[in-house]
Write a structure and sequence with these properties.
single chain; 93 residues; mainly alpha; two-stranded antiparallel sheet; elongated; binds zinc ion
């Protein structure tokens, strides 16, 4: 059994790393945007609605055309935002 303080230190360390990572990836690097964003940003100019939470997200051309061809195959709202995807993965594991 690990002492609780060790766990707390680990969480703090991870938070510090996350802060570091966000400073290394400033907002102006818009061409490096990956995944859907809540606002038009960089290459994310096409609107898609998440099939689960119905939130509007903006995605790049590749993601958008993938969603479009899935819809042509008869899949309703094939797009799923990162948050719902994370929720879904949690449930399925
Ligand atoms: Zn969603």
């Amino acid at each position: 059994m690990k002492p609780a303080i060790e766990v707390k230190d680990k969480i703090e360390q991870e938070e510090a790393e996350m802060r570091l990572r966000s400073t290394l990836n400033p907002e102006e690097q818009t061409n490096l945007v990956e995944g859907p964003t809540k606002f038009r940003k960089g290459p994310n100019q096409s609107e898609l609605v998440c099939g689960i939470c119905n939130e509007i997200y903006y995605v790049g051309d590749v993601t958008f055309s993938q969603a479009m061809s899935a819809m042509e195959e008869g899949i309703d709202n094939p797009f799923c935002c990162d948050e719902c995807e994370a929720d879904y993965e949690e449930v399925s594991h």
